[in-house]
Amino acid sequence: MTGASVAGESERRGFFSRILLFIRQVIGEMRKVVYPTRDELTTYTIAVLVFLAVIMAYVNGLDWLFTRAVSWVFGSN
């Protein structure tokens, strides 16, 4: 099939026929989804939490550093 014939087919389909086609395609794609196992999900969750803790510590350290620098520059107690 060429691109033009596929486009022609979609124009000839009715509104509800296109909706049903879309739903069938969505269901077909959802059947291809591979869901993680419990162990994989646990590993991914721990990895995300560790990464977030590291980033939070980094941002907290920068905040502390900039607070000290601003206090030093402006002479705040």
Automatic annotation (TrEMBL):
This is Protein translocase subunit SecE. Coiled coil: none annotated. GO terms for biological process: intracellular protein transmembrane transport; protein secretion; protein targeting; protein transport by the Sec complex. InterPro entries: SecE_bac, SecE_sf, Translocase_SecE/Sec61-g. GO terms for molecular function: protein transmembrane transporter activity. It is found in: Cell membrane; Membrane. Essential subunit of the Sec protein translocation channel SecYEG. Clamps together the 2 halves of SecY. May contact the channel plug during translocation. It is a single-pass membrane protein. It comes from Dermacoccus nishinomiyaensis. GO terms for cellular component: plasma membrane.
